[in-house]
Write a structure and sequence with these properties.
By secondary structure, the chain is α+β, with helices and mostly antiparallel strands. About 35% of the residues lie in helices and about 35% in strands. Strand 4, helix 4 and strand 5 form a beta-alpha-beta unit.
Length: about 170
Amino acid sequence: MKIEIRSAQIADIPTLIAFQKEGWFKDYHNVIPEGYAEYAIGVYGTRDAIRQQIDKAFLYIVAQVDETIVACATAEPLNALEAEIWWIHTSKAYRGQHVGRQLVEFIAAQMQGEVRSLCVTTFQGYTPTLQFYKRLGFQVQKTYIYESGPFQIPEVRLCKRLDLTE
């Protein structure tokens, strides 16, 4: 299977919206508080929100097999020390085939020399994501409760050093 990683384009938005819905309503349904998926879709998963993310993000990439988008990710440097993976999603049909790994490796390569660490925040109770990042060498930096409106979300932040030569 040949995977092409490229910058996200406006024409990709319908697929990215579908990925948002799959993540918030299917993957996270037992992990996030009731009602938070609808709230998150309204903030991050609308056509306008995704268009702004594509236009402004340092990296907003998709993974494509033939003509089908099978995964996506977005990331950006926060400062001279850290970059954050804001979102990564692989469609269910392509999970376990190292697509997510390739996206993280692509992001790390793009950030190499720009920052010292690559970080990601996810939900404390979402084992698949936690295991995925730990397999890639990320380590838990902290756990905390994120408050967004009426929601309290248990989160965990993981980071991986990129400047291992020092």
